[in-house]
Amino acid sequence: MLFLGDTTEPGYAKTAFGLRDWARDRCVGEHVLAGAMVSTGLPSLSPAQAYARGARAMVIGVANSGGFIPEHWVPALVQAMEAGLDIISGMHARLRDINGLRETADRLGRRLIDVRQPPAGIPIASGLPRQGKRLLTLGTDCALGKKYTALALARAFNARGVDATFRATGQTGILIAGGGIPMDAVVADFAAGAAEMLSPDAPADHWDVIEGQGSLFHPAYAGVSLALLHGSQPDVIVVCHEPGREYMLGHPRFAVPSITDTIELALQLGARTRPGIRCAGVSLNTSRLDEDMANRLLAWETDRLGMPVADPMRSGASFDRLVEACLA
């Protein structure tokens, strides 16, 4: 069951939406609190109803700024455990550090599972080249399609007979893929090393399709974006953008950078560890547009930028051209 709390900003519910869209067969419904203005569209269930439908865990489907669990959420999480559900969280806050959750879990024998736990033994980045091919999605901002783009590209590569693996770098991607490294939970000095660890030496024809994080222009999260770019050493980047978004999510004083500025900066910085890095194209999140308007925008941006521009969730010929450009 997906827990959305009392979230009012859709961008902060990206974990719930990601699981709904990429692991739908494992989601039985959602649970929200009073005041919530965000829904996945899945059935609204109580914890007991979710358990009766086969759920055995409640996933906190929110990734708010700072990754904290508000105190007023705790009774709902306790209720879920009392109904038979374990709790899974991708927040920075650790579940066992919250008294009411730890005590209830110990009393009932429930599991408290924190996904945002980096592995032990992460090395300092070497910057040395390694075999295999790598693609990294980068964004003009947070929560606008980097994960969806990487998942769609990995799936498209495999459909074409290309050996490709989606590499998750955030809590939602890890829940979908079953593994990965939560980059924003890694100590800064080791973050580029974590990216190297995530996409190691591979056969020459193997592709690692790596989920991007944050934005190189973000006032809070640029550090993890740069570490991921340096450590993953991508041969190819795809820049992700949401048309109409003017300001950084959660930081309204800062304007979203242009697609061209993002490409230019990413290529300049990425060349430090991967000379020859190239941008294959752009992924636009056109979910707020109708089909006709989206198609016209994709065509216009393709002409303007001189490279493939597509919305991976709409597929079609534009996405095929983006896939082909990545593999060229």
Automatic annotation (TrEMBL):
Residue ranges of domain D-glutamate N-acetyltransferase-like N-terminal in the record: 39-118
Record InterPro entries: DgcN-like (IPR011669), DgcN-like_C (IPR035086), DgcN-like_N (IPR035402), P-loop_NTPase (IPR027417)
Pfam family, one: DUF1611_N
Domain of life, per lineage: Bacteria
D-glutamate N-acetyltransferase-like C-terminal domain: residues covered: 125-318
Protein name (Swiss-Prot/TrEMBL): NAD-dependent epimerase/dehydratase family protein
Organism: Lysobacter niastensis
